C-alpha cells in the first residue's frame, strides 16, 4: 500500500506524519534534523512512499535536495496553501499528509 509523508521542519528536529492510501495514519513522530536519519526513517516506515512533502521555508532547500538526492519523491508546497488546506487546526501534519494523498490521486478531498 502506498504511503504519503508530510514533514514539518525546524532547525533541530523534523516532525513526520505518514498516511497510507486509505488515509490511515501509519506513523507520527519526530526525528533529528539530519537528512540521513530522516531518509532511514522514511524508508523504514514508508517502504512504498509515493510522495514526501514539506512546506517552503528557510530550511526547505537543503532538505529538499538531500531527499531528492536519496531518490525520494519529494515535493515542496507553499506554506500558504498548506495553511489554507488545514485551516490552521490541530493535526497539521495529518492534514497535509491527506493533501498529498488526495493530490496524488487527482482528488480534491
Topology:
Elements: E1 3-9, E2 13-20, E3 25-32, H1 35-45, E4 49-55, H2 60-69, E5 74-77, H3 79-86, H4 92-104
Parallel strand pairs: 1-4, 4-5
Antiparallel strand pairs: 1-2, 2-3
Helix pairs in contact: 3-4
Written account of the structure:
This protein is an alpha/beta fold. It has helices spanning 35-45, 60-69, 79-86, 92-104, and strands spanning 3-9, 13-20, 25-32, 49-55, 74-77. A 5-stranded mixed beta sheet has the order 3-2-1-4-5, with helices on both faces. Helix 3 (79-86) packs across helix 4 (92-104). Residues 84-90 and 105-109 have low confidence and may be disordered.
Summarize the structure.
The protein is of the alpha/beta class and 109 residues long.
What's the N-to-C terminus distance? 19 Å
Radius of gyration: 12 Å
Number of beta-strand segments: 5
The chain-level structural class is alpha/beta
The succession of helices and strands, N to C, reads: EEEHEHEHH
Number of helices: 4
Indicate the proportion of strand residues: 25-35%
What gross morphology would you assign?
A: globular
Question: What profile does the largest beta sheet have?
Answer: 5 strands, mixed
Largest sheet: spatial strand order = 3-2-1-4-5
Task: List low-pLDDT spans.
Answer: 84-90, 105-109
How would you describe this structure in keywords?
109 residues; alpha/beta; 5-stranded mixed sheet; 5 strands; 31% strand; disordered C terminus
Amino acid at each position: 500500500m502506498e504511503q504519503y509523508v508530510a514533514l514539518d521542519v525546524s532547525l533541530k528536529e523534523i516532525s513526520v506524519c505518514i498516511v497510507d492510501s486509505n488515509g490511515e495514519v501509519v506513523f507520527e513522530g519526530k526525528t533529528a534534523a539530519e537528512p540521513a536519519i530522516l531518509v532511514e526513517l522514511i524508508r523504514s516506515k514508508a517502504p512504498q512512499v509515493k510522495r514526501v512533502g514539506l512546506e517552503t521555508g528557510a530550511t526547505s532547500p537543503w532538505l529538499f535536495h538531500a531527499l531528492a538526492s536519496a531518490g525520494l519523491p519529494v515535493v515542496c508546497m507553499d506554506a500558504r496553501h498548506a495553511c489554507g488546506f488545514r485551516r490552521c487546526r490541530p493535526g497539521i501534519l495529518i492534514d497535509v499528509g491527506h493533501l498529498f494523498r488526495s493530490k496524488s490521486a487527482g482528488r480534491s478531498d
